[in-house]
Amino acid sequence: MKLRRLPDDFGVVEHLTPGTLAQIRTTDSESDGSANAAGERRELHAIYRLTKRQLTTPEASVMLARALELKPSAVAHAGLKDKHAVTTQHVSVRWGDAGAAAPDAPRELRSERDGAWHAVLVGWMDRPLAAADIERNHFTLVVRSLDRRDCDLLAARAKALDDDGESWLANYFGDQRFGSARHGDGFAAAAMCHGDFLLAFRLLAGSPARKDTGRKRETTRLIASAWGPPDATPAAESPAPPRAAWTSIARKLPPSPERRAVERLARDNNALAALGELSPSDLTMSVEAFQSYLWNQTLRALIAGATPARARVEVQTDYGPCAFPIATTDEHRWTNAARELRTIELPVPAATTTLSPAWAPHLLDALKPFNLRPDQLHIEQLRRPRFNEAARPAFIRVEDLAFAPPANDELAPKRSTKPLKRTVSFSLPRGAYATVLMRALGCE
Fold first, then answer.
1. This prediction's pTM
2. Which of 96, 158, 189, 261 could form a disulfide with 287 if both were Cys (CB 3.0 to 4.6 A apart)?
3. Residue 235: its pLDDT value, please?
4. Beta carbons within 10 angstroms of residue 391's beta carbon
């Protein structure tokens, strides 16, 4: 059962909260230009509904800003949406003081490349959009390479997630969260916690991944060459490259944060300073990836400990196993222990996290392979990135889960034993991952 054979197979539509929608004015004329309580003039923000295809949200935002002849920083988004998909979301464009003359904002814009992105003006607000403005995301996914048994199995697994008429899903972080570790060599943030900044730099900038493309592919492979030809030596045990190797590599890199980092290594082998030259967003995502892994493994252990094998399904991912409670075949409902887990929130762990006896042993177990304790989840030598604690629901409810009838898969080879496809649609609250639900349903 395959996902994402085509970009159009993965559709996402973002829905804003009712409160946010109520704040959006259909015309800027309602703004009176008055100052706020602090005496500051309000800014005016144009709200656009942005549909993109095969682009990341930052990439599409930069293109929109360029079309409006504004700086990229003028465009803010409420959430990040998948690149390999067709997605619709909302962005805000900082237009100036609310009391300024009425702006002539374009009502509609399109990309020069056909179908890459399309933006429609929705209205105006006195502030930029933020993550809290998103209520939910609605997904429409096409599952391919199916036979009749697979089609029935999809529906059966969906039914197993149902409990008293509601579908519940363990709220794991999805694979997208682990992009900084997709090379499979480890988590850079764990190395930073130990103060091994050269290893962290290697994991972030010099560890090639199979799915790397373009400049990313060239850069990671060039930096990796500083350690010599690939071999069986683990990254953590490799000796530090000589400064001469960094000097040679720096000459071959185009202007970029990675080049500045390599030039710093060539100058004085200061790995901490080199790490600080990398993109702040890359550093932040490396910490979030490690925190997400620990959170996932803590939840997985909680579920495994609370449910018998017959009342859960285990799924293996590239970033560790996941367990999903299901309705038992004899009782046709979730166990009481599994139901109790739906009421809890787990903190995304940091050094400041207050440990609870209910889940602390599982977090400790997840940290053992990294030789770390919870109080060591911080990076003393760097102001950024930080391990920020945040509460996340252990389970979320799946709304409007529905399956279209099986249909012929136009991508299936002739005489294929799996010639069918099936479309599934559903809504998830902000921060939940559609790929996690599809994993629970048995899709790759």
1. 0.90
2. 189
3. 67
4. 9
